[in-house]
């Protein structure tokens, strides 16, 4: 396939860093790391930078700041309470500059990851500290992240894009979280479409360097097809001159509970990233199913992923169709939305209001809630119901509502596969042969033991 | 029983809520779901409006002890809600194990049970609550 990872203007900044790595055949790996304490956060960044891997750094923001409860974030800092992320708007810009000082630079860009439907305060805080790379989107940081009405999120994201473009010294970078949404049980066509639509939204509001995300799902071959569709649609829909790359997220749903299962799922995602030409991978740690990971656990995840990627060799020749079912579904959704209105700030809420976009299992009041995803007997994600979306549901699907036990089985499908003892034979749970070069430790792993927490 | 099921103020996770609704309904309860990111004031208003028999609070984002404490304190300031059974569970802190001091603070503030992720304990708690409803 063509490497579209390096298209667009060359320059400095987050996007250019990934483009250069791709050109050199190196996968960039990145943690999801955030701690409330600035000293701890700095240690985490320093260890990320020093890891045996081609890394970029992350400041993952805490939940109080995400929902705009800045007083609660400040109170937690004052109490010395442990937070689930770095409260970037509660700490002063000087504090954040000190966290980054001597670490962040052209050879180590840092991105802020937040999950906020009203991100203006976060964008102000990050640009005040000299940062210029962040993540999100008007839909993907709204529907999965609380109860902010979609129209308010869209307006807030228009302002956030403009703020980011205005206040950044270098080329600002914005990544869409559209390829994740609720993390699980959403068939790939909608994930791919959301990533493309949100990146188009960013471009409409002044961004010139973007990344399109996709989260690993239940089946490696299906994921590869989705990633190829994403590359192709990005090339078709993003205007020339917009720098872009594809970023893969290691599995975002219920994670394996055992250490060996967790690390093997991570390795499978690293191989998937390489096979399908992603420029960057955001990892998960062995603590994922249990609690916020430590710095050590993050470093181990980065190094494990980098090693698996290095052993995976060069991108595979096209084994998955570029214009198969996923491409067709995603393209139909993108064109349907663009057909409502050329301005995505109007088209996106209109599409949700009519159910033309409909995220399965999403409780948000602005989501129609008539679609349903399921895992077919072969392990692929499919549509049981598509509601009013211009897509056809799977004919063999059981469209009955889930029971609690059925839902839990579906949610744990991937985790169970990787937690199961290694009776996988020559194929790993990701369905790919593990010859000795690809997976040196494939046969000799210890039996899965629960991680102590 | 009529159960009010809710996420906590800073927590946007919803798979826990989707799952718990099914679980509670299958056990014969009527469920009013408030969704994620419900702050203490919104929770109190919903309790006054729906008059549930019990409140099930679920939090998994690691801020559950703090968010839960705020919620319980506000509920207990309303005379009409002073005796409403409230149970909190999920992944409450960020360290992956029960934090006894935080649990104590919640119980002192008037939370009836702090359960972690133990669904059998939730079933038992609701069964006991249902029995209390029956006049002796
Ligand atoms: C999917 C997911 C997401 C999706 C959620 C989409 C959505 N709208 O729901 C996305 C990607 C958006 C997301 C975002 C975040 N997430 Co998240 N997420 C997960 C993940 C991978 C799976 C959760 C899931 O689907 N569970 C399935 C349901 C059915 O299970 P459950 O939630 O565990 O609930 C069970 C029990 O806990 C119990 N239970 C739950 N509530 C109650 C209540 C009572 C009374 C009882 C008795 C039992 C009970 O019953 C359920 C069935 O067994 C978990 C890790 C994992 N488990 O693998 C992390 C995890 C929950 N997330 C976490 C965090 C921190 C976040 C973020 C804050 C980002 C961050 N800083 O990393 C944001 C949330 C922002 C916010 N405002 O809160 C942490 C929480 C850490 C902690 N508690 O120590 C986890 C554990 C990951 C980690 N190790 O860091 N997340």
Structural class of chain A: alpha/beta
* Total DSSP E strands of chain B: 5
The pLDDT mean of chain A sits at 91
CATH homology superfamily name of chain A? Methylmalonyl-CoA mutase
Biased composition (Basic and acidic residues) (chain A): 431-442
Region (Disordered) (chain A): 416-453
GO biological process, one term (chain A): anaerobic L-glutamate catabolic process
InterPro entries (chain A): Cbl-dep_enz_cat, Glu_mut_E
Explain what the structure shows.
Chain A is an alpha/beta fold and 453 residues long. Chain A has one domain: TIM Barrel, CATH 3.20.20.240. Chain A has helices spanning 14-23, 38-50, 63-66, 70-79, 93-100, 120-128, 150-167, 188-204, 220-237, 259-275, 295-311, 325-340, 344-353, 404-411, 413-419; strands at residues 28-30, 57-60, 110-113, 133-136, 173-176, 209-215, 243-249, 280-282, 371-375, 381-386. In chain A, strands 1-8-7-6-5-4 form a 6-stranded parallel beta sheet. A two-stranded parallel sheet of chain A has the order 2-3. In chain A, strands 9-10 form a two-stranded antiparallel ribbon. In chain A, helix 10 (259-275) crosses helix 15 (413-419) and helix 12 crosses helix 13 (344-353). Chain A is globular and about 60 Å long. Residues 1-10 and 433-453 of chain A have low confidence and may be disordered. Chain B is α/β, with parallel strands linked by helices and 136 residues long. Chain B has a domain at 8-85 and 103-115: Response regulator (Rossmann fold). Helix content of chain B is 45%, strand content 17%. In chain B, helix 4 (100-108) links the parallel strand 4 and strand 5 (113-114). The longest helix of chain B is centred in the C-terminal third of the chain and has 15 residues, at 119-133. The model of chain B is unreliable at 130-136 (pLDDT under 50). Chains A and B meet through helix 3 and helix 14 of A and helix 1 of B. Cobalamin (B12) sits between chains B (10-16, 19-20, 56, 58, 60-62, 87, 89-91, 94, 115, 117-119, 121-122) and A (32, 34, 60, 63, 66-67, 84-85, 115, 144-145, 180, 182-183, 252-255, 287-289, 291-292, 411).
